[in-house]
Amino acid sequence: MRSWSISRRLVVTLVVLIGGIWLAGSGIAALMIRHEIDEVFDSSLQETAQRLLPLALDDLRRRDREDDEESERTLVNPFSAEEHEEYLHYQVRDAQGDVLLRSHDASAEPFPAPLKRGYFDDGDRRYFTEVAPDRTILVQVAELPAERQEAISALGLGLTVPLLGLLPIAAFVVYWTVRRATHPITQVQQQIAKRSGENLEPIDPRGLPDELVPIIQDMNRLLERLKAALEAERAFAANSAHELRNPIAAARAQAELIAENLRGSPDHARAIQLVGVLGQLGKRIEKMLQLARAEAGLGLDRTETDILAVTQLVAADYARRPQLGERVVFDPGTAEPVIVAIDPDALGIALQNLMDNAFAHGRPGTPVSVAVGPGPRIHIVNEGPVVGSDELADLTERFTRAGATRAPGTGLGLSIVDQIMRQAGGRLDLASPAPGKKDGFAATLVFPAR
Protein backbone atom coordinates (compact mmCIF):
# COMPACT_ATOMS: atom_id res chain seq x y z
CA MET A 1 0.00 0.00 0.00
CA ARG A 2 1.41 3.39 -1.00
CA SER A 3 2.30 5.81 1.77
CA TRP A 4 0.62 9.21 1.86
CA SER A 5 1.10 12.53 3.62
CA ILE A 6 -1.44 13.84 6.12
CA SER A 7 -0.26 17.42 5.54
CA ARG A 8 -0.48 17.16 1.75
CA ARG A 9 -3.92 15.56 1.89
CA LEU A 10 -5.23 18.18 4.32
CA VAL A 11 -3.86 21.07 2.25
CA VAL A 12 -5.28 19.74 -1.03
CA THR A 13 -8.64 18.84 0.54
CA LEU A 14 -9.06 22.18 2.29
CA VAL A 15 -8.01 24.23 -0.75
CA VAL A 16 -10.36 22.29 -3.02
CA LEU A 17 -13.10 22.60 -0.40
CA ILE A 18 -12.59 26.36 -0.07
CA GLY A 19 -12.62 26.78 -3.85
CA GLY A 20 -15.71 24.61 -4.16
CA ILE A 21 -17.57 26.46 -1.41
CA TRP A 22 -16.59 29.79 -2.99
CA LEU A 23 -17.85 28.68 -6.41
CA ALA A 24 -21.03 27.22 -4.93
CA GLY A 25 -21.65 30.41 -2.98
CA SER A 26 -20.93 32.49 -6.05
CA GLY A 27 -23.37 30.38 -8.08
CA ILE A 28 -26.11 30.73 -5.48
CA ALA A 29 -25.43 34.45 -5.17
CA ALA A 30 -25.49 34.81 -8.96
CA LEU A 31 -28.86 33.08 -9.14
CA MET A 32 -30.30 35.30 -6.44
CA ILE A 33 -28.83 38.46 -7.96
CA ARG A 34 -30.03 37.42 -11.41
CA HIS A 35 -33.53 37.26 -10.02
CA GLU A 36 -33.07 40.74 -8.57
CA ILE A 37 -31.59 42.02 -11.86
CA ASP A 38 -34.57 40.60 -13.74
CA GLU A 39 -36.88 42.45 -11.38
CA VAL A 40 -34.88 45.68 -11.77
CA PHE A 41 -34.82 45.48 -15.57
CA ASP A 42 -38.51 44.58 -15.72
CA SER A 43 -39.31 47.43 -13.38
CA SER A 44 -37.26 49.75 -15.56
CA LEU A 45 -39.25 48.69 -18.65
CA GLN A 46 -42.54 49.19 -16.87
CA GLU A 47 -41.56 52.52 -15.30
CA THR A 48 -40.27 53.88 -18.60
CA ALA A 49 -43.51 52.96 -20.35
CA GLN A 50 -45.61 54.51 -17.59
CA ARG A 51 -43.61 57.77 -17.71
CA LEU A 52 -43.79 57.98 -21.50
CA LEU A 53 -47.54 57.33 -21.70
CA PRO A 54 -48.77 60.70 -20.27
CA LEU A 55 -46.16 62.56 -22.28
CA ALA A 56 -47.31 60.89 -25.46
CA LEU A 57 -50.98 61.59 -24.66
CA ASP A 58 -50.22 65.25 -24.00
CA ASP A 59 -48.24 65.63 -27.19
CA LEU A 60 -50.91 64.00 -29.34
CA ARG A 61 -53.69 66.12 -27.84
CA ARG A 62 -51.65 69.27 -28.46
CA ARG A 63 -51.21 68.26 -32.07
CA ASP A 64 -54.89 67.57 -32.44
CA ARG A 65 -55.63 71.04 -31.20
CA GLU A 66 -53.20 72.56 -33.65
CA ASP A 67 -54.49 70.24 -36.36
CA ASP A 68 -50.92 69.99 -37.62
CA GLU A 69 -50.89 66.88 -39.78
CA GLU A 70 -47.46 67.66 -41.21
CA SER A 71 -45.63 67.52 -37.89
CA GLU A 72 -43.19 64.68 -37.39
CA ARG A 73 -44.31 61.83 -35.25
CA THR A 74 -41.69 62.23 -32.55
CA LEU A 75 -41.86 63.57 -29.07
CA VAL A 76 -40.92 67.18 -28.78
CA ASN A 77 -37.89 67.65 -26.53
CA PRO A 78 -37.49 70.88 -24.61
CA PHE A 79 -33.74 70.65 -25.31
CA SER A 80 -31.56 69.29 -28.06
CA ALA A 81 -29.49 66.17 -27.27
CA GLU A 82 -26.59 64.62 -29.13
CA GLU A 83 -26.94 61.28 -30.82
CA HIS A 84 -26.30 58.49 -28.29
CA GLU A 85 -26.68 54.78 -27.84
CA GLU A 86 -30.03 53.82 -26.36
CA TYR A 87 -30.48 50.84 -24.12
CA LEU A 88 -34.28 51.05 -24.33
CA HIS A 89 -36.36 51.64 -27.46
CA TYR A 90 -39.99 52.70 -27.42
CA GLN A 91 -42.91 53.10 -29.78
CA VAL A 92 -46.24 54.89 -29.27
CA ARG A 93 -48.98 53.09 -31.17
CA ASP A 94 -52.68 53.60 -31.67
CA ALA A 95 -55.39 51.05 -31.07
CA GLN A 96 -54.93 49.67 -34.61
CA GLY A 97 -51.17 49.14 -34.03
CA ASP A 98 -49.85 51.97 -36.17
CA VAL A 99 -46.70 53.65 -34.92
CA LEU A 100 -47.44 57.22 -33.93
CA LEU A 101 -44.18 58.10 -32.18
CA ARG A 102 -40.85 56.31 -31.60
CA SER A 103 -37.36 56.87 -30.21
CA HIS A 104 -34.71 57.80 -32.75
CA ASP A 105 -33.02 54.35 -32.59
CA ALA A 106 -36.28 52.41 -32.67
CA SER A 107 -37.36 50.57 -35.80
CA ALA A 108 -40.08 52.15 -37.94
CA GLU A 109 -41.74 48.74 -38.13
CA PRO A 110 -44.15 47.98 -35.28
CA PHE A 111 -42.80 45.85 -32.45
CA PRO A 112 -43.97 42.22 -32.55
CA ALA A 113 -45.44 42.54 -29.04
CA PRO A 114 -49.22 42.14 -28.75
CA LEU A 115 -51.41 45.23 -28.19
CA LYS A 116 -52.22 44.48 -24.58
CA ARG A 117 -50.70 45.43 -21.25
CA GLY A 118 -47.91 43.24 -19.91
CA TYR A 119 -44.53 41.67 -20.67
CA PHE A 120 -43.66 39.81 -23.85
CA ASP A 121 -40.54 37.90 -24.88
CA ASP A 122 -39.46 37.62 -28.49
CA GLY A 123 -36.24 35.65 -28.66
CA ASP A 124 -33.55 37.69 -26.92
CA ARG A 125 -35.76 40.80 -26.59
CA ARG A 126 -38.21 41.64 -23.82
CA TYR A 127 -41.06 44.11 -24.19
CA PHE A 128 -43.52 45.85 -21.89
CA THR A 129 -46.74 47.41 -23.09
CA GLU A 130 -48.66 50.07 -21.17
CA VAL A 131 -52.19 51.00 -22.38
CA ALA A 132 -53.86 54.42 -21.92
CA PRO A 133 -57.01 54.48 -19.77
CA ASP A 134 -59.16 55.25 -22.81
CA ARG A 135 -57.34 52.53 -24.80
CA THR A 136 -56.73 54.92 -27.69
CA ILE A 137 -52.95 54.64 -27.56
CA LEU A 138 -50.36 52.42 -25.97
CA VAL A 139 -46.61 52.62 -25.29
CA GLN A 140 -44.30 49.67 -25.90
CA VAL A 141 -40.73 49.70 -24.51
CA ALA A 142 -38.15 47.18 -25.75
CA GLU A 143 -34.95 46.14 -24.04
CA LEU A 144 -31.89 45.76 -26.28
CA PRO A 145 -30.60 42.21 -26.81
CA ALA A 146 -27.84 40.96 -24.47
CA GLU A 147 -28.03 43.98 -22.13
CA ARG A 148 -29.46 41.92 -19.32
CA GLN A 149 -27.10 39.01 -20.00
CA GLU A 150 -24.10 41.35 -20.06
CA ALA A 151 -25.01 42.66 -16.61
CA ILE A 152 -25.39 39.12 -15.26
CA SER A 153 -22.09 37.99 -16.87
CA ALA A 154 -20.24 40.99 -15.43
CA LEU A 155 -21.65 40.14 -12.02
CA GLY A 156 -20.57 36.49 -12.36
CA LEU A 157 -17.05 37.53 -13.30
CA GLY A 158 -16.98 39.89 -10.36
CA LEU A 159 -17.78 36.99 -8.06
CA THR A 160 -15.43 34.38 -9.55
CA VAL A 161 -12.38 36.36 -10.75
CA PRO A 162 -11.32 37.29 -7.17
CA LEU A 163 -11.09 33.57 -6.51
CA LEU A 164 -8.07 33.38 -8.83
CA GLY A 165 -6.19 35.78 -6.57
CA LEU A 166 -7.60 34.61 -3.25
CA LEU A 167 -7.12 30.87 -3.86
CA PRO A 168 -3.27 31.01 -3.75
CA ILE A 169 -3.51 33.11 -0.59
CA ALA A 170 -5.93 30.61 0.90
CA ALA A 171 -3.62 27.76 -0.11
CA PHE A 172 -0.69 29.43 1.65
CA VAL A 173 -2.76 30.10 4.79
CA VAL A 174 -4.03 26.52 4.82
CA TYR A 175 -0.51 25.15 4.26
CA TRP A 176 0.90 27.30 7.07
CA THR A 177 -1.94 26.30 9.41
CA VAL A 178 -1.58 22.60 8.62
CA ARG A 179 2.19 22.76 9.10
CA ARG A 180 1.72 24.34 12.52
CA ALA A 181 -0.99 21.84 13.44
CA THR A 182 1.13 18.85 12.39
CA HIS A 183 4.39 20.16 13.86
CA PRO A 184 3.89 18.08 17.04
CA ILE A 185 3.77 14.96 14.85
CA THR A 186 7.15 15.94 13.39
CA GLN A 187 8.51 16.46 16.91
CA VAL A 188 7.32 13.01 17.96
CA GLN A 189 8.86 11.50 14.82
CA GLN A 190 12.20 13.14 15.64
CA GLN A 191 12.04 11.87 19.21
CA ILE A 192 11.28 8.33 18.03
CA ALA A 193 14.15 8.53 15.52
CA LYS A 194 16.53 9.24 18.41
CA ARG A 195 15.50 6.03 20.18
CA SER A 196 17.73 3.01 19.62
CA GLY A 197 19.20 0.12 21.51
CA GLU A 198 21.33 2.63 23.44
CA ASN A 199 18.53 5.14 24.07
CA LEU A 200 15.14 3.76 25.09
CA GLU A 201 14.10 6.63 27.36
CA PRO A 202 10.34 7.43 27.36
CA ILE A 203 9.06 10.30 25.22
CA ASP A 204 7.81 13.31 27.15
CA PRO A 205 4.12 13.85 26.25
CA ARG A 206 3.92 17.32 27.80
CA GLY A 207 2.92 20.05 25.36
CA LEU A 208 1.57 17.58 22.78
CA PRO A 209 -2.03 17.61 21.48
CA ASP A 210 -4.56 15.46 23.30
CA GLU A 211 -4.89 13.26 20.19
CA LEU A 212 -1.21 12.25 20.38
CA VAL A 213 -0.95 11.67 24.12
CA PRO A 214 -2.52 8.14 24.09
CA ILE A 215 -0.18 7.13 21.26
CA ILE A 216 2.86 8.43 23.17
CA GLN A 217 1.73 6.63 26.33
CA ASP A 218 1.43 3.34 24.44
CA MET A 219 4.81 3.99 22.81
CA ASN A 220 6.42 4.61 26.20
CA ARG A 221 5.00 1.36 27.57
CA LEU A 222 6.44 -0.47 24.57
CA LEU A 223 9.82 1.21 25.11
CA GLU A 224 9.81 0.17 28.76
CA ARG A 225 9.15 -3.47 27.87
CA LEU A 226 11.78 -3.36 25.12
CA LYS A 227 14.31 -1.76 27.46
CA ALA A 228 13.70 -4.41 30.11
CA ALA A 229 14.09 -7.19 27.54
CA LEU A 230 17.34 -5.73 26.14
CA GLU A 231 18.78 -5.15 29.61
CA ALA A 232 17.99 -8.74 30.53
CA GLU A 233 19.64 -9.98 27.33
CA ARG A 234 22.75 -7.85 27.85
CA ALA A 235 22.99 -8.82 31.49
CA PHE A 236 22.76 -12.48 30.56
CA ALA A 237 25.46 -12.14 27.90
CA ALA A 238 27.75 -10.12 30.15
CA ASN A 239 27.28 -12.38 33.18
CA SER A 240 27.71 -15.51 31.11
CA ALA A 241 30.91 -14.21 29.52
CA HIS A 242 32.25 -13.00 32.85
CA GLU A 243 31.51 -16.28 34.56
CA LEU A 244 33.12 -18.27 31.76
CA ARG A 245 36.22 -16.12 31.30
CA ASN A 246 38.06 -17.19 34.46
CA PRO A 247 37.29 -20.95 34.21
CA ILE A 248 38.37 -20.98 30.57
CA ALA A 249 41.55 -19.08 31.37
CA ALA A 250 42.29 -21.61 34.11
CA ALA A 251 41.51 -24.48 31.75
CA ARG A 252 43.89 -23.04 29.17
CA ALA A 253 46.64 -22.76 31.75
CA GLN A 254 46.14 -26.38 32.72
CA ALA A 255 46.13 -27.40 29.06
CA GLU A 256 49.44 -25.59 28.53
CA LEU A 257 50.97 -27.51 31.48
CA ILE A 258 49.67 -30.77 30.09
CA ALA A 259 51.05 -29.94 26.65
CA GLU A 260 54.43 -29.13 28.18
CA ASN A 261 54.44 -32.44 30.09
CA LEU A 262 53.47 -34.35 26.94
CA ARG A 263 56.25 -32.81 24.85
CA GLY A 264 57.79 -35.57 22.73
CA SER A 265 54.82 -37.90 23.10
CA PRO A 266 52.22 -38.71 20.43
CA ASP A 267 49.57 -36.76 22.42
CA HIS A 268 51.52 -33.52 22.42
CA ALA A 269 49.94 -32.29 19.16
CA ARG A 270 46.46 -32.91 20.51
CA ALA A 271 47.30 -31.00 23.69
CA ILE A 272 48.59 -28.04 21.63
CA GLN A 273 45.36 -28.12 19.62
CA LEU A 274 43.37 -28.02 22.86
CA VAL A 275 45.33 -24.97 24.01
CA GLY A 276 44.53 -23.23 20.72
CA VAL A 277 40.81 -24.00 20.97
CA LEU A 278 40.66 -22.70 24.55
CA GLY A 279 42.50 -19.55 23.43
CA GLN A 280 39.98 -18.94 20.67
CA LEU A 281 37.13 -19.53 23.11
CA GLY A 282 38.67 -17.03 25.53
CA LYS A 283 38.90 -14.40 22.74
CA ARG A 284 35.29 -15.00 21.78
CA ILE A 285 34.17 -14.50 25.37
CA GLU A 286 36.23 -11.30 25.56
CA LYS A 287 34.48 -10.05 22.42
CA MET A 288 31.13 -10.86 23.98
CA LEU A 289 32.03 -8.79 27.02
CA GLN A 290 33.09 -5.89 24.79
CA LEU A 291 29.88 -6.17 22.78
CA ALA A 292 27.81 -6.13 25.98
CA ARG A 293 29.61 -2.98 27.13
CA ALA A 294 29.11 -1.33 23.73
CA GLU A 295 25.41 -2.15 23.69
CA ALA A 296 25.12 -0.77 27.22
CA GLY A 297 26.10 2.64 25.82
CA LEU A 298 29.81 2.81 26.62
CA GLY A 299 30.39 5.14 23.66
CA LEU A 300 27.77 7.64 24.84
CA ASP A 301 30.08 9.04 27.49
CA ARG A 302 31.36 12.46 26.40
CA THR A 303 34.57 12.51 28.42
CA GLU A 304 37.25 14.68 26.82
CA THR A 305 39.97 12.29 25.64
CA ASP A 306 43.29 12.79 23.88
CA ILE A 307 43.06 10.28 21.05
CA LEU A 308 46.78 10.73 20.32
CA ALA A 309 47.74 9.55 23.81
CA VAL A 310 45.30 6.60 23.79
CA THR A 311 46.39 5.50 20.30
CA GLN A 312 50.06 5.72 21.27
CA LEU A 313 49.37 3.61 24.36
CA VAL A 314 47.56 0.89 22.39
CA ALA A 315 50.23 0.85 19.67
CA ALA A 316 52.95 0.52 22.31
CA ASP A 317 51.10 -2.41 23.89
CA TYR A 318 51.04 -4.28 20.57
CA ALA A 319 54.65 -3.33 19.91
CA ARG A 320 55.68 -5.25 23.05
CA ARG A 321 53.91 -8.43 22.00
CA PRO A 322 56.05 -11.27 20.57
CA GLN A 323 55.96 -11.62 16.78
CA LEU A 324 53.89 -8.41 16.48
CA GLY A 325 56.16 -5.69 17.78
CA GLU A 326 58.28 -5.40 14.67
CA ARG A 327 55.19 -5.05 12.49
CA VAL A 328 53.69 -1.99 14.28
CA VAL A 329 54.44 1.33 12.53
CA PHE A 330 53.12 4.31 14.51
CA ASP A 331 52.83 7.85 13.11
CA PRO A 332 51.65 10.41 15.71
CA GLY A 333 51.08 13.02 13.03
CA THR A 334 51.38 15.85 15.55
CA ALA A 335 52.88 16.54 18.92
CA GLU A 336 49.80 18.48 20.07
CA PRO A 337 46.95 16.68 21.89
CA VAL A 338 43.94 15.82 19.77
CA ILE A 339 40.93 16.11 22.06
CA VAL A 340 37.57 14.51 21.26
CA ALA A 341 34.49 13.63 23.32
CA ILE A 342 34.63 9.85 23.88
CA ASP A 343 35.17 7.52 26.78
CA PRO A 344 38.85 6.40 26.80
CA ASP A 345 37.86 2.78 27.51
CA ALA A 346 35.50 2.83 24.53
CA LEU A 347 38.27 4.22 22.33
CA GLY A 348 40.69 1.58 23.63
CA ILE A 349 38.22 -1.21 22.82
CA ALA A 350 37.70 0.18 19.31
CA LEU A 351 41.44 0.45 18.64
CA GLN A 352 42.11 -3.01 20.04
CA ASN A 353 39.53 -4.56 17.73
CA LEU A 354 40.91 -2.73 14.70
CA MET A 355 44.48 -3.78 15.55
CA ASP A 356 43.40 -7.40 16.02
CA ASN A 357 41.56 -7.27 12.71
CA ALA A 358 44.60 -5.77 10.92
CA PHE A 359 47.01 -8.43 12.22
CA ALA A 360 44.57 -11.32 11.67
CA HIS A 361 43.79 -10.44 8.05
CA GLY A 362 47.10 -8.94 6.95
CA ARG A 363 49.84 -10.91 5.27
CA PRO A 364 52.24 -12.49 7.78
CA GLY A 365 55.26 -10.34 8.49
CA THR A 366 53.88 -7.23 6.77
CA PRO A 367 53.60 -3.94 8.69
CA VAL A 368 50.45 -2.53 10.25
CA SER A 369 50.39 1.28 10.11
CA VAL A 370 48.75 3.31 12.86
CA ALA A 371 48.45 7.07 12.22
CA VAL A 372 46.66 9.99 13.89
CA GLY A 373 45.33 12.93 11.85
CA PRO A 374 44.99 15.11 10.07
CA GLY A 375 42.33 16.35 12.47
CA PRO A 376 40.35 14.03 14.75
CA ARG A 377 41.04 10.85 12.78
CA ILE A 378 42.83 7.57 13.40
CA HIS A 379 43.97 5.39 10.47
CA ILE A 380 44.90 1.69 10.77
CA VAL A 381 46.16 0.11 7.55
CA ASN A 382 47.47 -3.38 6.80
CA GLU A 383 48.77 -5.16 3.72
CA GLY A 384 46.54 -8.01 2.68
CA PRO A 385 44.13 -9.25 0.05
CA VAL A 386 41.60 -6.79 -1.36
CA VAL A 387 38.08 -7.02 0.05
CA GLY A 388 35.35 -6.59 -2.54
CA SER A 389 33.13 -3.52 -2.39
CA ASP A 390 30.04 -5.70 -1.97
CA GLU A 391 31.58 -7.24 1.16
CA LEU A 392 32.77 -3.94 2.66
CA ALA A 393 29.21 -2.71 3.26
CA ASP A 394 28.40 -5.83 5.32
CA LEU A 395 31.56 -6.07 7.43
CA THR A 396 30.06 -4.02 10.29
CA GLU A 397 27.25 -6.55 10.70
CA ARG A 398 27.60 -9.08 13.50
CA PHE A 399 29.30 -12.38 12.72
CA THR A 400 30.31 -11.17 9.24
CA ARG A 401 33.84 -11.85 8.05
CA ALA A 402 35.58 -11.18 4.79
CA GLY A 403 36.09 -14.36 2.84
CA ALA A 404 33.25 -16.05 4.72
CA THR A 405 34.22 -18.81 7.16
CA ARG A 406 37.83 -19.11 5.94
CA ALA A 407 38.73 -15.80 7.62
CA PRO A 408 39.86 -15.99 11.24
CA GLY A 409 38.14 -14.11 14.06
CA THR A 410 34.72 -13.93 15.65
CA GLY A 411 32.99 -11.58 13.22
CA LEU A 412 32.20 -9.14 16.06
CA GLY A 413 35.18 -6.76 16.04
CA LEU A 414 34.10 -4.28 13.36
CA SER A 415 30.49 -4.42 14.62
CA ILE A 416 31.70 -3.37 18.09
CA VAL A 417 33.82 -0.54 16.62
CA ASP A 418 30.97 0.72 14.44
CA GLN A 419 28.56 0.74 17.37
CA ILE A 420 30.97 2.66 19.61
CA MET A 421 31.68 5.23 16.90
CA ARG A 422 28.01 5.83 16.20
CA GLN A 423 27.38 6.33 19.89
CA ALA A 424 30.22 8.84 20.02
CA GLY A 425 28.77 10.78 17.09
CA GLY A 426 31.50 9.69 14.68
CA ARG A 427 31.80 6.99 12.07
CA LEU A 428 33.92 4.07 10.92
CA ASP A 429 35.15 4.28 7.32
CA LEU A 430 36.41 1.15 5.58
CA ALA A 431 38.37 1.01 2.33
CA SER A 432 39.99 -1.74 0.28
CA PRO A 433 42.44 -1.48 -1.35
CA ALA A 434 43.95 0.98 1.09
CA PRO A 435 44.22 4.56 -0.23
CA GLY A 436 47.35 4.95 -2.34
CA LYS A 437 47.97 1.18 -2.52
CA LYS A 438 47.09 -1.70 -4.78
CA ASP A 439 45.96 -3.96 -1.96
CA GLY A 440 45.44 -3.89 1.80
CA PHE A 441 42.65 -2.80 4.07
CA ALA A 442 42.20 0.61 5.76
CA ALA A 443 39.96 1.39 8.73
CA THR A 444 39.52 5.04 9.75
CA LEU A 445 37.91 6.35 12.93
CA VAL A 446 36.41 9.76 12.14
CA PHE A 447 35.39 11.84 15.16
CA PRO A 448 33.13 14.92 15.05
CA ALA A 449 34.97 18.23 15.02
CA ARG A 450 34.73 20.22 18.23
TrEMBL record:
Pfam families the UniProt entry points to: 2CSK_N, HAMP, HATPase_c, HisKA
Keyword terms, alphabetized: ATP-binding, Kinase, Membrane, Nucleotide-binding, Phosphoprotein, Transferase, Transmembrane, Transmembrane helix, Two-component regulatory system
Start and end residues of each HAMP domain: 179-231
Cell location: Membrane
Keyword Transmembrane: yes
EC code: 2.7.13.3
Name of protein: histidine kinase
GO molecular function: ATP binding; phosphorelay sensor kinase activity
Membrane disposition: Multi-pass membrane protein
Domain Histidine kinase: 239-450
Gene3D superfamilies: 1.10.287.130, Histidine kinase-like ATPase, C-terminal domain (3.30.565.10), Sensor protein qsec (1.20.5.1040)
Transmembrane regions: 154-178
Record has Glycoprotein as a keyword: no
